[in-house]
Amino acid sequence: MPVITIANQKGGVGKTTTAVNLAAGLALRFRYSDNKDQRVLLIDTDPQMHALMALAFGDHSAPSQESLAALLTQMPAPSIQGMLRVAQYHPNLHFIAGNRTALTEAASRLPGLLNKDMRLSLAIESVLKDYAFIVIDTPPNPGDLLTNTLVAATHVLIPVETSYLGVTGLQSLHETIENVKSAYQRDDLGVIGYLPTMVDLQRAESQEILDSLSSLFGDLVLKPIHKSADLAYAHSAHMDIFNFRPPRRREDGALRSSSRGTQDYAQLVETVMKRTEFARIMA
Ligand SMILES: Nc1ncnc2c1ncn2[C@@H]1O[C@H](COP(=O)(O)OP(=O)(O)OP(=O)(O)O)[C@@H](O)[C@H]1O
Ligand SMILES: [Mg+2]
Predict the structure, then answer these.
(1) Closest residue (by CA) to atom 23 of ligand 1?
(2) Residue bearing the CA closest to ligand 1, atom 15
């Protein structure tokens, strides 16, 4: 089943907003369609735990030995089953409990561990079949946590903030992806798309950057996420956009909304389902 890592080593580009809303949107999309028993798992590998706070504020953390950090560092790895929790607003959206201090420590211990880049991949192996999609949020810096998420992934989704600085810095992510592909014979690990975020068409700069992204990456540039007060408010209210501004359901099961933030992420849900050939996998 598709494992989608949301990555960009630049900070504040919309990784967490995208991870949370893609995961919640997919979960809701399944509940509104004929695939009601399909589940989604969100894994937050950023010690800041902002993605987990949006899913279950107050219930997002656990003692270190029952959190993601233990999966990444303990030998043998503990069972993942006892660490899975259900998101507050979506019964078919699960997450692995986190622990800020333990995950920060785990990041510094990883370099000395056997299989240091494969720990996440090995930890989730036993639950891959239980989830239609796994979405992984990543920290804004290179390192073993990010490498673990790329080794575990089948696809990488790259949010790019539409500012002049937004397109810089992609080179080092591309190098990391290429290194993972060659070190682990993962030719199948593909970029699912570049997602322009915080697009403000009132500013000439936004359009110029969309054009330059298109000339660099062609069809891999996805329909953009616009700057939206709803997305920012939802984030500070510890909610996903589908809970904050609920969508309507279309006949074909797709989600639709007059809130731009909800509509943009509903569109991303459809694109991700298409590009991962989810329909074919389920057939
Ligand atoms: N489309 C948008 N419109 C308005 N605000 C947004 C949008 N996307 C994200 N934001 C806001 O921008 C800030 C940064 O977004 P987010 O936390 O998703 O980025 P990030 O890449 O995960 O950051 P970090 O690198 O620190 O983890 C947040 O306050 C978020 O609410
Ligand atoms: Mg983040």
Answers:
(1) 12
(2) 14
For residues 134-172, one letter each, b for 16 or more C-beta atoms within 10 angstroms of the residue's C-beta and e for the rest, the string is bbbbbbbeeebbbbbbbbbbbbbbbbbbbbeebbeebee
36-64 per-position pLDDT tens digit = 889 999 999 999 999 999 999 989 999 99
* Structural domains of the chain, ranges and CATH numbers in brackets: 3-282 (3.40.50.300)
| Neighbour-count burial for 72-107, b at 16+ CB within 10 Å, e otherwise | bbeeebeebeebbbebbbbebbbbbbbbbebbeebb
Distance 17 CA to ligand 1 centre (A): 6
Structure tokens at 265: 């992420």
pLDDT tens by residue, 128-148 = 999 999 999 999 988 999 999
Give the predicted TM-score (pTM) of the model.
Answer: 0.96
Closest CA to 42 of 64, 25, 65: 25
Which residue CA neighbors atom 16 of ligand 1 most closely? 14
Instruction: Determine the distance separating the centroid of ligand 2 and the alpha carbon of 51, expressed in angstroms.
Output: 7
